[in-house]
Amino acid sequence: MTAQNGSEKLWGGRFSDDLADLGLQFSESTAADRPMIDEDIWGSQAHCIMLGACGIINAGDLRAILGGLAQIRQQFADGQFDLDPQLEDVHMNVESRLREIIDPQVAGRLHTARSRNDQVVTDARMHLRTRLLELRQALADLQQALLDLGAEHLETVMPGYTHTQHAQPISVAFWLSSYTSALQRDQERLAQTYERVNRCPLGASALAGTSFPIDRILTAGLLGFDGVMEHALDAVGSRDFVAEPLADLAIVASNLSRLAEELVLFSTHEFGMIEIDDAYATGSSIMPQKKNPGMAELTRAKTGLAYGRLVQALTMIKALPSGYNRDLQEDKPPLWESLDSVQTCVRMMTAMVSTLKLRPERMAELVQGNYAAATELANFLVRERNLPFRDCHRIVGHIVGTLLAEGQPLTDYRRVSELLAEARQEVSDQQLAEVLDAQAILHRQVSQGSTGVEATAAMIEKLREATEDNRGEIATAHQALTQARQQTNQIIEHIIEGGELAELKL
Ligand code: ARG
Fold it and tell me: Three-state SS for 5?
């Protein structure tokens, strides 16, 4: 049966007129659907295998549909299948192409016990899980680049800051690995998100399930899902699976923006502690001397996109009534855009970190020049003279105040010794030199998680293991997806070559 009058749309039966061009342009979603073409075809393949296995379509129809879908998949791989905006979305495009390739009467059975509402979330979850793994891979590369550079600088001192003011000496290894540590939580968040994303909504149908005896577990398995997203109404109407990765991405972006900001700041003439490689810096059209940290600045700025897309998605899903609403079509552009942007930023940061030049002399100069060792002097008095910390803080604070007034640094050990003597604490210049030397300070930091050489080396070791574990998890997840794809392919081949489903163990 074809449309006898009115609309030619696949859904055109109850319409007497076609959709206006403006209405079509306004509502078609082919651009946002394009990344999910492969997933949409795979979803249809799994769905019809399941329909066949459950006796909902017969063996001949199954063979014909699978043959047609295999051709569409091949056409897509060969660049011969692209989405036509006239056909609204990816689902209608695939079904229409199937009707061109095989008997439309048979093709028309594919949509039994299924709706675009459960199809679209299935496709999106499938595409999303691949993107999440890609992002985790890129993050692991960045984590590793930070550790690789850091591991060479366990004893390179630089100023540690609070309030952007010199606070205490830290090592470059400690500084860089702090980002790996933060990114590890991003990894964990993305791993948990993946678990929730990788549930199969297919079979929820439009909203209420179906009166056909479908096997949702079979479909889910063929598509590489870890299980079904059981509640049909929830499965088609909820988009927390979009908001959650967007929130993860926003947090990743916030971490990148902090690193980017420090690359900008520390490469200025004033700080002069690092130099960004020429390959990732830009010049000025007028000022010949300029070298601008353009890539770091752009990474910092693109945080806005990641935050914006999260707010966009959250706003869009707020207060939507149950079931599918067309509003939900607007979920994919922000998701893909944020994934693209954040992943590019992660790659950019990896390239910048792996080529970053450090200026240890400048770091040492800064760390010695601005009283960053004062806390250690107070600690020394507590240890050696058994004084309450609060008293030592006052003594050292007074010394720093005097030195500042005299324009002297804390490395003027002779003067510091005199001032200590005034506070009835005799400490030789030589002892002071040992106590206040920035590298010696690094060696004395013994607490777990500190900038101490051993403590930081231990953290780097653990973070390396964690980074490797991430790679292991990513590989395992990839493998599960590849296996599911292969299993589906084998079933398809078997059927197309004339075999029966009953001969297979499903
Ligand atoms: N293009 C739609 C989307 O992305 C697919 C689902 C359409 N469902 C519907 N009832 N019109 O959400």
Answer: coil
Other residues' Cβ atoms within 10 Å of the Cβ of residue 499: 14
Residue type, 145: A
- The helix (run of H) or strand (run of E) holding residue 212 is none
pLDDT at 5 over 70: no
Residues having CB within 6 Å of any atom of ligand 1: 29, 89, 116-117, 120, 324, 326, 328-329
Mean pLDDT of the chain: 97
User: Residue with the nearest Cα to atom 11 of ligand 1?
Assistant: 326
The percentage of residues in the chain with a pLDDT greater than 90, rounded to a whole number, is 95
Query: What pLDDT, on a 0 to 100 scale, did the predictor assign at position 17?
Result: 85
pLDDT of 68 strictly over 50: yes
Does 163 participate in catalysis according to the annotation? yes
DSSP SS3 for 498: coil
Which atom of ligand 1 lies closest to the CA of 91? 5
Sign of CA dihedral 180, 182, 188, 193: negative
Q: Which protein residue's CA is at the shortest distance from atom 7 of ligand 1?
A: 116
415-437 pLDDT, tens digit per residue, is: 999 999 999 999 999 999 999 99
The CA-based dihedral angle spanning residues 308, 310, 313, 319, taken in that order and rounded to the nearest 10 degrees: -110
- Model's pTM, two decimal places? 0.96
CA of 85 to the centre of ligand 1 (A): 14
Report CA(329)–ligand 1 centroid distance (Å): 6
Helical segments of 168-293, H only: 172-197, 216-222, 232-237, 240-266
374-385 and 429-436 are packed helices; what angle lies between their axes, rounded to 10 degrees? 120
| Mean pLDDT of the region 371-389 | 96
First to last CA, the chain: 34
CA of 208 to the centre of ligand 1 (A): 16
Phi, psi of 426 (to 5 degrees): -85, 115
Active site residue 322: no
Instruction: For residue 326, report the distance from its CA to the centre of ligand 1, in Å.
Output: 6
| Ligand 1, atom nearest to 88 Cα | 1
pLDDT tens digits, residue range 82-123?
999 999 999 999 999 999 999 999 999 999 999 999 999 999
Residue 89 CA: nearest ligand 1 atom is: 1
What CA–CA distances, in Å, run from 407 to 400, 411, 415?
Answer: 10, 12, 11
Mean pLDDT over residues 210-214, rounded? 98
Helix (H, G, I), strand (E, B) or coil at 422: helix
